[in-house]
């Protein structure tokens, strides 16, 4: 049975409730990993200092969300082999930001991590950030990662069952005012578990990143936000075609259990003042593409299957889950169209992150306000 908590989305004054007032939430999808898509020059880098500057800039521009991916790859898995942990790095960003929500991607089954650890670490970050911290729950889709932790990959749907058990207990620790004990299918147990202080707004923000029915069923019960992909692949036309049904299905599943979930997606924005400059820039990134460093690892994820679907238009390989390419006006047109699919937010990525986030703030954000997508 699901242990139910009140979502911070339903608590007036919580950072999440405030973020949800925006017609289209804006986020940054930080790259804390040394992964290069192209040899075309860029200032982007995995370092904490670079990403700290990005997140501060996004916070100043009024963005609501910051996310990053996390992976556990063996030697050779990243170009330069450096990859910061999103739990620790996004948590640390609480101290250097004011309003932006900081969502740490955590592999909640590896270890196994104990619910008391997650609950205590989460409550601590919740108090440091004043309710701005949350978890992007991922369960691990690559066999090589599970093997690194010393076991065979756990079967796809079983992962969500174990994550459910874990979050029933974590949520209970965040809210229950008495000690309690628990023993279930998971390898951990709790005896007289209790944590205090409790989170400031019911519990930290919960997100999960998924494309499968089991993952969506999990999101319907536990998440405030679902981080989704385009079922049709990276081209904006394919995304606009396939997202409405996908998003409607997610929202309907949540409604069936009496909950509301929001959806976000991560486009890359490639924009210059004129169409010619934009196309030249996009082509330059694409022409100098480096073959994906971790493309060879086995994955059982459903979320990215659209990328292999030849019946849909695919992108240029510029990064992001979908590609938004054009002049500032054309970018806004595409974001307006995306909003019409039912999406609640976008977590933006840029090839050359810091200068292009600045360009977005100067040239695109004012147009988004004019278009009614931003308050
Ligand atoms: C937008 C998005 C971002 C994700 N980010 C990560 C990540 O950073 N690390 C990771 O291990 N898995 C990540 N995942 C994978 C999911 O957590 C999940 O393991 C995968 O999608 C397989 O589950 P599914 O079949 O439910 O989609 C991401 C998935 C999506 C859709």
UniProtKB/TrEMBL annotation:
<dbReference type="GO" id="GO:0016705">
    <property type="term" value="F:oxidoreductase activity, acting on paired donors, with incorporation or reduction of molecular oxygen"/>
</dbReference>
<dbReference type="Pfam" id="PF00296">
    <property type="entry name" value="Bac_luciferase"/>
</dbReference>
<keyword id="KW-0503">Monooxygenase</keyword>
<dbReference type="GO" id="GO:0004497">
    <property type="term" value="F:monooxygenase activity"/>
</dbReference>
<dbReference type="InterPro" id="IPR050172">
    <property type="entry name" value="SsuD_RutA_monooxygenase"/>
</dbReference>
<keyword id="KW-0288">FMN</keyword>
<feature type="domain" description="Luciferase-like">
    <location>
        <begin position="40"/>
        <end position="344"/>
    </location>
</feature>
<keyword id="KW-0560">Oxidoreductase</keyword>
<dbReference type="InterPro" id="IPR036661">
    <property type="entry name" value="Luciferase-like_sf"/>
</dbReference>
<protein>
    <submittedName>
        <fullName>Luciferase</fullName>
    </submittedName>
</protein>
<keyword id="KW-0285">Flavoprotein</keyword>
<dbReference type="InterPro" id="IPR011251">
    <property type="entry name" value="Luciferase-like_dom"/>
</dbReference>
């Amino acid at each position: 049975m699901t242990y139910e908590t009140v979502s911070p989305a339903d608590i007036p004054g919580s950072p999440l409730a405030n973020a949800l007032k925006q017609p289209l939430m804006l986020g940054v999808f930080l790259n804390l990993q040394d992964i290069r898509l192209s040899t075309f020059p860029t200032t982007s880098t995995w370092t904490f200092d670079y990403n700290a500057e990005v997140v501060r800039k996004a916070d100043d521009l009024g963005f609501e969300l910051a996310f990053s991916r996390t992976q556990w790859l063996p030697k050779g898995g990243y170009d330069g082999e450096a990859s910061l942990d999103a739990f620790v790095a996004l948590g640390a960003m609480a101290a250097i930001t004011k309003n932006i929500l900081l969502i740490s991607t955590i592999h909640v089954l590896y270890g196994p991590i104990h619910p008391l650890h997650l609950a205590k670490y989460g409550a601590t970050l919740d108090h440091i950030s004043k309710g701005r911290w949350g978890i992007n729950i991922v369960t691990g889709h690559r066999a090589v990662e599970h093997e690194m932790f010393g076991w065979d990959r756990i079967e796809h749907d079983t992962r969500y069952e174990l994550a459910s058990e874990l979050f029933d207990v974590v949520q209970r620790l965040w809210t229950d005012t008495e000690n309690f004990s628990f023993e279930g299918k998971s390898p951990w147990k709790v005896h007289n578990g209790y944590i205090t202080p409790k989170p400031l707004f019911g519990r930290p923000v919960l997100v999960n990143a998924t494309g499968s029915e089991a993952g969506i069923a999990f999101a319907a019960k536990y998440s405030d936000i679902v981080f989704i992909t385009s079922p049709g692949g990276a081209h904006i036309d394919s995304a606009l075609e396939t997202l409405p049904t996908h998003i409607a299905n997610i929202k309907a599943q949540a409604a069936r259990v009496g909950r509301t979930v929001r959806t976000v997606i991560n486009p890359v924005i490639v924009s210059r003042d004129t169409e010619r400059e934009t196309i030249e820039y996009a082509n330059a990134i694409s022409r100098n593409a480096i073959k994906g460093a971790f493309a060879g690892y086995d994955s059982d994820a459903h979320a990215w299957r659209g990328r292999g679907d030849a019946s849909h238009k695919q992108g240029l390989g510029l990064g992001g889950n979908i590609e938004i390419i054009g002049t500032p006006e054309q970018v806004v047109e595409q974001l307006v169209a995306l909003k019409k699919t039912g999406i609640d937010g976008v977590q933006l990525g840029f090839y050359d992150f810091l200068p292009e986030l600045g360009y977005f703030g100067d040239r695109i954000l004012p147009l988004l306000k004019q278009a009614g997508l931003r308050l």
